Amino acid sequence: MGKKKLDKHSDVGVLDREKRKVEKPKKYKAVMYNDDYTPMDFVTIILMEVFHKPGTEAVKLMMDVHKKGKGIAGVYTKEICETKCTKANQFAKASGYPFLVQPERE
Predict the structure, then answer these.
(1) Rounded distance between C-alpha atoms, residue 52 and residue 2, angstroms
(2) How far apart are the C-alpha atoms of 26 and 51, rounded to whole Å?
(3) Could you tell me which of 56, 34, 58, 37 has the C-alpha nearest to residue 46?
(4) Residue ranges of the domains in the chain?
């Protein structure tokens, strides 16, 4: 606990604030996994709608997923990454595709 000091304007004791080092939030990758059923155009739409990627970047990322088996849609704080992954997975499921996006710690 901090040391007691007297307030400048009264005889009341106040505690010094403890100095705490604030850490940067950990980052998470939104990792997309390739499957044999989800159309490439649909993956591009998810990248543009959920991850707000411009068209040319979305096509490039989609091709990475198609050729390499997986790709990174973006890097975010934990809560944002989880939300985007959930939204993408729900969108794919509602459209009848097994497309999967999962958060992974960087």
Answers:
(1) 46
(2) 19
(3) 58
(4) 25-98
d(CA 97, CA 91): 9
Q: Cα–Cα distance between 50 and 78 in angstroms, integer?
A: 16
Span 69-80, pLDDT tens digits:
999 999 999 999
Q: 8 is written with which tokens?
A: 């400048």
| Separate counts of helices (H) and strands (E) for the chain | 3, 5
Q: Which pTM does this prediction carry?
A: 0.78
Q: Half-sphere exposure (CA, 13 Å, Cβ side) for 83?
A: 6
Token pair in block for residue 45: 């739409």
CATH code, 25-98: 3.30.1390.10
Give the pLDDT confidence score for residue 23 in this predicted structure.
Answer: 86
Residue 46, H or E segment:
helix 40-49
Rounded Cα distance between 77 and 26, Å, is 6
Terminal-to-terminal C-alpha distance of the chain: 35
Q: Which two tokens stand for residue 61?
A: 């990322």
